[in-house]
Amino acid sequence: MAGLLTAAELEALGLSLRVAIVAVLAVLPFAFLAALLLARCQFRGKALVDGLIHLPLVLPPVALGYLLLVSLGTRAPLGAFLLDTFGIRFVFSWTGAALASAILTFPFQVRAIRLSLEAQDKGLAEAAETLGAGPLDRLFSLYLPLAVPGILGGAVTAFAACFGEFGAIITFVSNIPGETRTIPLAIYTAIQTPGGEAAAARLAALSIVLALLGLVLADVLARRARAALG
Amino acid sequence: MGVQLRHRLDAFQLDVAFAFGDRAGVTALFGPSGAGKSTVINAIAGLLKPEFGQVVLDGETLLDTTRAISVPARARRLGIVFQDTRLFPHLSVKANLIYGWQRAREKGEASRFDSVVSLLALEGFLDRRPRTLSGGEKSRVALGRALLMNPRALLLDEPLASLDAGHKAEILPYLDRLVRETKIPMLYVSHSLDEVARLADRMVVIDKGRVVAEGSLFDVTQRLDLIAGKELLPGAVLEARIVGHDDAHGLTELTMAGESLVVPRIDRAPGDTVRIRIDAPDVMLALSRPEGVSANNILPASVAAIEESGAHADIQLSLKDARLIARITRRSLERLALKPGVPVFAVIKSVTVGGREHG
Predict the structure, then answer these.
(1) What is d(CA B70, CA A5) in angstroms, rounded to the nearest whole number?
(2) In a domain, B358, yes or no
(3) pTM for the complete prediction?
(4) CATH number of the domain that B166 lies in?
(5) Under DSSP, is residue B261 helix (H, G, I), strand (E, B) or coil?
(6) What is the pLDDT of residue A229?
């Protein structure tokens, strides 16, 4: 791989991986809780919550990038507060790219986990209850392990989607080599650069290979998980 | 002590009260599908909150809607064996078995796990996943899981209904052993008289959400009204004692209510008691002892009561200390001029033996 790609391209690949992994793992617990809320609870305003969770699916990524920039920029109140109090800076940083990717791919995770929670046999929860398991106990001994196929499926889908994220990243955290220039941004940069066609083609091919690998991995994981659950 | 429930589910009204839980032994909750049996189990288990209800088991009030008491299902300490087993698919057999045990306050003796595993012969597949088990094996694991939680009572909701005849035959001996070796009250829901006759001591018959009969297995199954008209039972269950075996003919001789009966050979020692079932359509009546018939079992009896419905008449016959039901046509009833008190001979075409050993 190292022979095929230049150092800058390898850097873009590493950055894409880092952004995607962090984005997926950071929101996974929240996605599980949101899915649990939607799958198991009845409450007023559920349709609204459902709509908010799915909003990133229909929101233009560039618009999201813009919103993040104006709210988390160092001169914006929230951005200034985060920087001064916790030393957290999102703008022009790879963490900002991860944040934008996480928000955009959150619905994929929620949806997959919710479907697997809804597919669970309610009779099992009743059985667990009569065997002495309280709500939290059932969550960890039953709902969570039985949702593993959904969690894995959602995570792989979200991971693949993170790999393609462009608009929100370039708007929010710009196109900084080694910091925010992920593979899609590197492709864009290569096309803009005279004589960069070969680099763009290599990176595009790399994207396609990674996407296919993701699909295969998702399939294998889902199969294994289903086999393990019977 | 017992169960009292009133609940409306759409157009279905449940209104039952029966004794349960004050002593060891099996109480059968018997009735056709749709009679409300599962609703009763769910309400006792705490999985359904009835509009009105009282459940007092083992001296403890688990539910009393008039006093706003409702112990949550997880604290009722009732072992439930569901019809569809409900084993946890992601856990091994062993982890399934100890799920309730780990969560129990009073775990019982430490050797409990081993004794339940050997009672149900589960040694061979502790590490396997439920999906790799046969239907009968799954039922045994579900029984073990409920037993291991150290329950105050066991509720079995048609545990054999989803099994084929072969697997039923495989699991019944385990249920027999369970009944004999554990000292906890069991409520056994079923619509099969074979299972009930084999396992139960007491019987509660429910139909359309109401209790129509409650009492000892023999008293209830020998009642005329449950067989005639209502068609809730096919025949009577009686107790007989083994006298000896006729090995030359492959037969076993029994004595029942002072009369002798022969049945195909059963592997039990003389002196053992067995339960036999005699279905109403398998009993013919004669005014004098018939000669030259193939039937082996001809018992003198007298007519106790008659109930007519449609083309047939059901006759309750009185033997020394048991009753038997015969189903004949109304035309035969008229021809024989049967009335209460008339002495008759019951010609029994078929006897089902399958009851568990007593004493």
Answers:
(1) 68
(2) no
(3) 0.85
(4) 3.40.50.300
(5) strand
(6) 73
